[in-house]
Amino acid sequence: MIKDKRINKIHEYVLEHKSVSLDELVKVFNVSKNTIRRDIQELVEQGDIKKVYGGVAVNDDNRAKLESFTDRQVRNQAEKVMIAKAAAQYVEDGDIIFIDSGTTTIEMFEFIKTKHLSIITNSLDFVVRSLLFENLNIISFGGILERKTNSFGSLQNRELLQTYNINKAFMASTGISLTNGVTNASPLESELKQTIVERSAEVFLLVDHDKFDKYGLKTYCGLDEIDYIVTDRMPNETYQEYTRNNNIQLVVPE
């Protein structure tokens, strides 16, 4: 097994088992302990895994947990409004867009409410705010209400969603990283988000600076599937290089 593939497999193994010994990794991957130590060091430097006595474990310091909508809404509020305003500039009359549930994506409402749009959304808050605006054609698929995110999480009819041609999707995330991609803390929402990314011509990811190098319970798409990352601060050089290499446009409002 080539090195890069082995390291990815080790990463997946540790994430699945939460904590493993070096001896177990040596046995599972059939390599020397020195090789495992070198591979582990690379994963430790990426931030998702930490060394513990006799082995390694998932670094929970970087794992984002599912918090209530209200608790998340007050954090970095000014930055979220700034990000939402920058993202809203890409919305044009006649667009068919998806607005994801999230405390940043909901802030887009004030900047697009006067446009003539078809909006697909799983956000209960966005549906309620849109009631007074007849120029907004709202499409929602319902499902199970996830109270911590004020959103409809489960995808009841994937085939129906796949019939919609979405110009632009504005996505939220619990955390993003180069190793885990774009992640989400709510398992109910992951299939819906994955399908939206697949069906959209352009995908915009709205994340503030605190979301970088964090990860949630499930990955719903790779970072390379995103077309625009809209954030409040320029990320570090590693992310800048990644976006350049993968034709992702970084949008950082002044």
From TrEMBL:
The lineage of its organism: Bacteria, Bacillati, Bacillota, Bacilli, Bacillales. InterPro entries: Carb_Metab_HTH_regulators, DeoR-like_C, DeoR_HTH, NagB/RpiA_transferase-like, Tscrpt_reg_HTH_DeoR_CS, WH-like_DNA-bd_sf, WH_DNA-bd_sf. This is DeoR/GlpR family DNA-binding transcription regulator. Keywords: DNA-binding, Transcription, Transcription regulation. Pfam families: DeoRC, HTH_DeoR. GO terms for molecular function: DNA binding. Residues 3-58 form the HTH deoR-type domain.
